[in-house]
Design goal:
heterodimer, A: 431 residues, alpha+beta, Cytochrome Bc1 Complex, Chain A, domain 1, 2 domains, seven-stranded mixed β-sheet, five-stranded mixed β-sheet, 15 helices, 41% helix, B: 433 residues, six-stranded mixed β-sheet, globular
Chain lengths: 431, 433
C-alpha cells in the first residue's frame, strides 16, 4: 500500500510540503525551508501519558501500566544495546538531539546543519531498537526522580497539575505526564517492551523533516531504511479511557508553596468530546478566537482587570482540544484569587461579542499562524499535533476565515458552564 | 543558501546612535528590535525597568492601552514587547516588534512601514503632559513591577543563579538586578520617570536592528530622523575581577530539590583571543549531553537530571549548575571537581573534542535561522566592542589547540558555590497523585 510522493501547496502563504505513506504505514512529510542552515526532524508516535490502558494487539486483553511510563520509555529509548547511547551517535554527526512526551504523543528529534541523511538513519534506528534491562531501567529511576522533583518545585507546573486533578474525575489526563516518584519506581523492562510493541509501530508514527533539503531524496532515503526492517501490517492501536462525567471532580483546589504572590488558574472542561479532523479544528479555532475576544489584551475585560491590578500582562486564556478530552485554562499571578475569579465568572458571560472584535482576532490568528512556519521547532510541534488529530495544517487559514460571530456566541454558551468549571490556586508560604 | 542572502549586518553606529539591518528572505516575519543602553546603577535600575512598561501603555495617537493592543492586533497580531534586559554591567531598555511580512497577507500591506511607525510612536510620542507620565498609569505599573521583582523566588533555578552572581559581584554593578529594588521603585514619581525618559532618549546609546526581507535603505532612511542626535559614546562592558576564592554559601527554603550553582573567574571575555579556547573548555566540560558533567553527574552517578557548564561571555565568568538531592551536595561537588581536574590534566578524548567542535558548529550556524538570535549575537559584539561570530568563530574554534585549552584550565578559578537547599525543620512531602 505504498503511495507516490504527493506535493501539497498553500500558495498564499508561500508554503508547500511533500509527503508519502510507506508500506509499513509510516507517514513521511518534508517541509522545505529554503535558505535555512539547519534541518529539524521529528519522529513521533501517537502515544502519550494518557495511554496507560489499552488492548494488547495480540491477545486483545486490556493491559494497565504504571503512570508516567510513556515518558520513562522516551528516556530509555536513547540507550543502545552493547553500551553507548543515541546522543553520542548524533553528536558524532554534529547534531543535537532531544525528546519530549505530552498527554497524547511522544516525540524524538534532532537538529543539524550537516549530514542530514545520516542523522535520519540514527533517528529511525534508535527509536526502532528498544533495549531495556533490569539494570538500565533501575539506573534511570534516579534521573527521572530528580526530573519529577524539579517539576514539584515549579509553581506554574503544580498549578496546572492541580487544575487537571480538579477538572477530571477519571480521565488519565489528570495524572502528571512524568507520573510520580512512586509510580515510576514500579516500572519494569517488561512493561516498557509491552508499551513499545504496542505504540511504536510505524503505522502509529510520523516522520517530519523541515529544512533546505531535497524532499524526494529524503523520502527515498527513509524508504530504503524502513523496507528492510519488514514491519508487518498492524491495525490501529486501541487505548482505553474510563468514562468521564461532564461535571468536575472538585470545584476548588489549593496548595501553598514558596511563591511571592498567589497563582490562579480557572479551567472549563469539554462536556462533549470525540471530535476529530475538521470538526475538532473548527472547535479549537473558535474557542481560541473566543478567548481572545473575551479576555485577550485588547478586550475590555482584560483592560479593566489590568487597571485594577488583578492581573498582569502574563495573564493567559487558551483552549486545547484532543479527541478524548479538551479544556480551557485561564489565569496568572494575582494578589486576590477570589476577587479575580468572581470578576471573571461575571465578566466572561456579560462581555459583548462584536463583529469588529472577531475580525481583529482573526487577523491576529492568521498572523500567528504564518509566523509559525519560520520556526521549525514550533512548526513541528503544531504539525504533529494536528496530524495525530486527523487535521490538515493547510485547512487552518480557511477555517479561521469561516468562523462566524454566531459560532463564538454558541461556543460561549456551551463551554462556559458552571458544572464544568474548576479553580486551582497556589498561595504563598514563608520561605 | 541563495546568493542574495546577507551573511552579516549592514549598518553603522556613530555618536551613540546606530542601526543594523540583516536582509534575508528566510523568514516570514520582519523583526524590529530597538535598544537604549544604560549603565546599571542602584539609582537608575528601577527607573529603567519601569520606563518600557509605562511607555507601552499609550502614545499620542493611541492614548489607551486598549487602543495600543487593538492596533497591534489589526497589524496581523504583531507581537510587541517592551521590557528590560541585562548584559554584564549594562541595562538594556528593549522594544521588540515582530510583524508578518505583508507579501504573505491578503492585499499585501506594507507592514514594514507600519511597524517602523509604530515603534517610532512608542519611542518618541509616549503619553505625557510634557512634564510627567500619567500618574495612574505609573502607579499601576509600579505595582506590577514590584510584584515582578518579588516573583524571582518562584523560579528556583533562576533564583539560585541570580543570588550567586549577586554574591560574586559583592555590590558591583554587574550583580545588580535588571529590575532594580523595591526601595528604588517606591521612590519613583511620574515626574522623575519623565526626567529619566528625557535623559535616556536624549543621551543614552540607541541602536535599532531589523531582520527579514527588508531593504537596508528603508532602515537608513528611517534612521535619518535621528541624524542630529548627540548621545554618549557606548562604553564596552567591563569584565569582572575576582574577589572571593572557593567560598561556599548555603541558603535554605522549603524546596523539593537542591540547586547547586558554581561561579568561576576566567578573565576571558568575547573579545579575548583565548575566547574560542574557553568555549571549547566549557563545551567539553559541560555544554552538551556528551560532555563530562552530563556523563558523570547524570549518566554515571544518577545524581541529577541536569548538569551544565556555560560561559558568560560579557563577564568572563564560567557558571556550573545542577539540580540534586539535598544530601548529595558533597558527592556532586566532588564529581564536578574531578571533571575540572581532568580538564586541567588535559584528559580530553578525541571523541569529546570532535563532538564539541561539531556541536558548536551546529549551534552557531543554527542561530542564523532565528531572528532574535541573529540580533542577540550582533548586540553582544556591539556591547563588548568586538568578538567573532558565524563562520569566523567556527574557523577560530577549529584552530584551537589542546595546549590552549589546558592554558584556559589554568586561568579558571573557583569564586563562589551557592547551594539552595531545604529548610532544616521541614520534611519533604511526597506528593500524592
Amino acid at each position: 500500500m505504498s503511495v507516490m510522493n504527493q506535493t501539497l501547496e498553500n500558495a498564499a502563504i508561500g508554503e508547500k510540503r511533500i509527503q508519502t505513506v510507506l508500506s509499513s504505514g509510516l507517514t513521511v512529510v518534508v517541509i522545505p525551508r529554503p535558505g535555512f542552515h539547519k534541518t529539524f526532524a521529528t519522529f513521533a508516535t501517537r502515544y502519550g501519558s494518557i495511554d496507560n490502558a489499552f488492548h494488547d494487539p495480540k491477545t486483545h486483553d486490556i493491559i494497565t501500566v504504571p503512570d508516567g511510563i510513556a515518558h520513562f520509555l522516551e528516556h530509555k529509548m536513547f540507550e543502545k544495546e552493547g553500551g553507548g547511547d543515541a546522543f553520542d551517535d548524533f553528536a558524532r554527526l554534529g547534531a543535537s538531539s532531544n525528546a519530549y512526551t505530552d498527554y497524547t504523543s511522544t516525540t524524538f528529534l534532532f537538529q543539524t546543519t550537516s549530514h542530514v541523511k545520516e542523522n535520519l538513519t540514527v533517528l529511525l534506528d534508535f527509536v526502532q531498537s528498544p533495549y531495556f534491562t533490569e539494570a538500565n531501567v533501575n539506573k534511570e529511576k534516579g534521573i527521572i526522580e530528580q526530573e519529577i522533583r524539579m517539576y514539584l518545585d515549579m509553581p506554574g507546573d503544580r498549578l496546572h497539575s492541580n487544575l487537571m486533578k480538579a477538572l477530571y474525575v477519571n480521565h488519565p489526563v489528570r495524572i502528571d505526564i512524568a507520573g510520580s516518584v512512586e509510580s515510576i519506581r514500579t516500572i519494569t523492562p517488561e512493561d516498557l517492551y509491552t508499551c513499545y510493541q504496542t505504540f511504536y509501530h510505524p503505522s502509529n508514527m510520523i516522520l517530519l523533516v523541515i529544512g533546505d533539503v531535497d524532499a524526494s531524496e529524503i523520502i527515498d532515503w527513509v524508504r530504503s531504511n524502513q523496507e528492510p526492517k519488514g514491519y508487518a501490517f498492524q491495525g490501529p492501536v486501541v487505548a482505553v479511557y474510563p468514562e468521564e462525567p461532564s461535571t468536575v471532580h472538585q470545584k476548588h483546589v489549593e496548595k501553598t508553596m514558596v511563591v511571592s504572590m498567589p497563582l490562579f488558574v480557572m479551567g472549563y472542561k469539554d462536556a462533549e468530546v470525540g471530535l476529530t479532523g475538521k470538526a475538532l479544528l473548527h472547535r479549537e479555532i473558535t474557542y481560541g478566537l473566543m478567548w481572545q475576544m473575551l479576555c485577550g489584551k485588547s478586550s475590555g475585560l482584560f483592560q479593566e482587570l489590568y487597571r485594577e491590578g488583578l492581573i498582569n500582562d502574563r495573564f493567559y486564556a487558551r483552549y486545547g482540544g484532543s479527541t478524548t478530552f479538551g479544556f480551557s485554562a485561564l489565569g496568572g499571578e494575582t494578589p486576590d484569587p477570589e476577587k479575580l475569579e468572581a470578576r471573571l465568572v461575571e465578566g466572561l458571560v456579560k462581555a459583548p461579542l462584536t463583529q469588529e472584535d472577531l475580525d481583529r482576532a482573526k487577523r491576529r490568528e492568521m498572523g500567528e499562524f504564518i509566523g509559525l512556519f519560520q520556526n521549525p521547532e514550533e512548526l513541528a510541534y503544531a504539525y504533529n499535533s494536528l496530524f495525530f488529530r486527523g487535521i490538515d495544517i493547510y485547512d487552518y487559514m480557511d477555517t479561521v476565515q469561516h468562523v462566524t460571530l454566531e459560532d463564538i456566541q454558541q461556543a460561549r454558551s456551551t463551554h462556559l458552564q458552571e458544572p464544568q468549571r474548576a479553580v486551582s490556586v497556589i498561595r504563598p508560604q514563608n520561605p | 543558501m541563495s546568493t542574495a542572502e546577507a551573511t552579516a549586518f549592514i549598518g553603522t553606529m556613530e555618536q551613540g546612535t546606530g542601526w543594523f539591518c540583516f536582509p534575508t528572505k528566510r523568514f516570514k516575519t520582519i523583526t524590529l528590535h530597538a535598544f537604549w543602553i544604560n549603565q546599571l546603577s542602584r539609582q537608575e535600575a528601577a527607573l529603567g525597568a519601569l520606563l518600557p512598561h509605562v511607555m507601552q501603555r499609550g502614545t499620542t495617537s493611541w492614548p489607551t492601552f486598549q487602543r495600543m493592543e487593538q492596533t497591534l492586533e489589526s497589524l496581523y497580531g504583531a507581537s510587541f514587547r517592551a521590557d528590560v534586559g541585562k548584559m554584564g554591567d549594562k541595562q538594556l531598555l528593549s522594544f521588540h516588534l515582530e510583524i508578518v511580512n505583508g507579501k504573505y497577507l491578503p492585499g499585501h500591506p506594507d507592514t514594514l512601514t507600519q511597524g517602523l511607525e509604530f515603534l517610532y510612536e512608542v519611542l518618541e510620542q509616549p503619553l505625557t503632559d510634557g512634564q510627567s507620565f500619567v500618574p495612574a498609569i505609573v502607579d499601576q505599573e509600579k505595582d506590577l513591577l514590584r510584584r515582578q521583582i518579588q516573583s524571582l523566588i518562584n523560579d528556583k533555578g533562576q533564583y539560585a543563579l541570580t543570588r550567586l552572581i549577586e554574591q560574586m559581584a559583592d555590590g558591583r554593578a554587574f550583580g545588580l538586578r535588571k529590575l532594580g529594588t523595591i526601595d528604588e521603585l517606591d521612590r519613583i514619581t511620574p515626574q522623575s520617570l519623565f526626567r529619566h525618559y528625557e535623559a535616556v532618549k536624549g543621551h543614552k546609546p540607541f541602536v535599532l536592528f531589523a531582520v527579514g526581507d527588508v531593504d537596508p535603505k528603508t532602515i537608513e532612511r528611517f534612521m535619518a530622523r535621528y541624524q542630529t542626535r548627540q548621545a554618549d559614546m557606548l562604553e564596552p562592558i567591563a569584565p569582572y575581577t575576582q574577589r572571593f576564592h572557593d567560598r561556599t554559601l548555603i541558603e535554605r527554603q522549603n524546596v523539593q530539590q537542591g540547586k547547586v550553582n558554581m561561579g568561576y573567574h576566567t578573565g576571558i571575555t568575547l573579545t579575548d583571543l583565548r575566547y574560542p579556547a574557553l568555549m571549547m573548555y566549557a563545551g567539553i566540560l559541560g555544554g552538551f549531553p556528551h560532555s563530562k558533567l552530563f556523563l558523570n553527574v547524570r549518566e554515571k552517578a544518577s545524581l541529577a537530571y541536569y548538569a551544565y557548564a556555560r560561559v558568560d561571555a560579557a563577564l568572563g565568568a564560567m557558571l556550573i549548575g545542577a539540580g540534586i538531592e539535598f544530601e548529595d551536595f558533597d558527592p556532586a561537588i566532588q564529581i564536578i571537581g574531578e571533571q575540572l581536574d581532568a580538564m586541567a590534566q588535559g584528559e580530553i578524548s578525541e571523541q569529546e573534542w570532535e563532538f564539541t567542535l561539531r556541536a558548536f558548529e551546529n549551534d552557531i550556524l543554527s542561530e542564523e535561522d532565528n531572528p532574535s538570535q541573529i540580533i542577540a549575537r550582533q548586540l553582544e559584539q556591539i556591547l563588548m566592542g568586538g568578538g567573532q561570530s558565524g563562520t569566523a568563530l567556527i574557523q577560530a574554534l577549529h584552530n584551537v589547540t589542546r595546549e590552549q585549552v589546558q592554558e584556559v584550565a589554568k586561568a579558571v578559578s573557583l569564586d563562589t558555590i551557592f547551594f539552595l537547599t531545604q529548610a532544616e525543620d521541614v520534611q519533604r512531602q511526597e506528593e500524592a497523585q
